[in-house]
């Protein structure tokens, strides 16, 4: 473990996946499956992730409705984007020197709606550029607020346009209309 992992917000969760093993000089992805508790809907106002600061690439949190998945709490190798039917709700890129990554900490009164019992998976992506096998642990912190106290419901928007064809020393502009 490379740095202390912050505790989750009071009343929140910390989800650990690992140990995750990546062979030398490989690009690896792992998916950890789980679900929120059955019962009332939830209001999430905090998401943060903690991953190896040099070899971690991203830790994304998806909601899904797939029936045929690995057991909950077990991280398994998976292909990036293998479950395109999942809804990306929390994206985490840009790992800092302390292992912390993209956090969503919403202002008071704002939250993301999650159905009670909703299934999720966490996609961990690593680029092991070393000549040695590496072992990792990932941590996701999730915070909740009182459902009835939410004034504004929010959701995430992600554009991961990867089909870019830009010649060297040239510029390009992409415009996306949100409707």
Task: Briefly summarize what is shown.
By secondary structure, the chain is mainly β. The protein has strands at residues 13-22, 26-35, 42-50, 56-64, 75-77, 87-90, 104-105, 110-114, 119-128, 134-145, 152-154.
Give structural notes.
By secondary structure, the chain is mainly beta. 0% of the residues lie in helices and 43% in strands. The protein contains no helices and 11 strands. It has strands spanning 13-22, 26-35, 42-50, 56-64, 75-77, 87-90, 104-105, 110-114, 119-128, 134-145, 152-154. Strands 1, 3, 7, 8, 10 and 11 form a 6-stranded mixed β-sheet that branches. The chain is globular. The model has no long low-confidence stretch (mean pLDDT 85).
Give the terminus-to-terminus CA distance: 43 Å
Shape: globular
Which consecutive residue ranges, at least 5 long each, have pLDDT under 50? Answer: none
- Main beta-sheet strand count, sense and barrel state: 6 strands, mixed
In DSSP terms (H or I, runs of 4 or more residues), the helix count works out at: 0
Q: What would you report as the Rg, rounded to the nearest angstrom?
A: 17 Å
Give the overall average pLDDT: 85
């Amino acid at each position: 473990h490379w740095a202390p992992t912050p505790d989750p917000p009071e009343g929140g969760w910390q989800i650990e996946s690992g140990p995750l093993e990546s062979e030398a000089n490989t690009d690896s992805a792992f998916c950890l499956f789980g679900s929120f508790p059955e019962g009332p809907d939830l209001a999430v106002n905090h998401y943060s992730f903690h991953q190896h600061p040099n070899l971690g690439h991203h830790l994304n949190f998806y909601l899904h409705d797939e029936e045929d998945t690995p057991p909950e709490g077990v991280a398994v190798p998976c292909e990036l984007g293998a479950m395109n039917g999942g809804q990306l709700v929390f994206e985490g890129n840009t790992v800092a020197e302390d292992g912390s990554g993209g956090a969503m900490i919403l202002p008071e009164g704002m939250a993301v709606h999650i159905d009670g019992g909703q299934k999720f998976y966490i996609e961990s992506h690593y680029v092991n550029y070393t000549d040695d096998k590496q072992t990792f642990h990932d941590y996701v912190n999730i915070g909740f607020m009182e459902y009835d106290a939410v004034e504004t419901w929010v959701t995430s928007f992600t554009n991961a346009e990867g089909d870019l064809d830009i010649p060297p020393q040239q510029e390009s502009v992409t415009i996306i209309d949100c409707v």
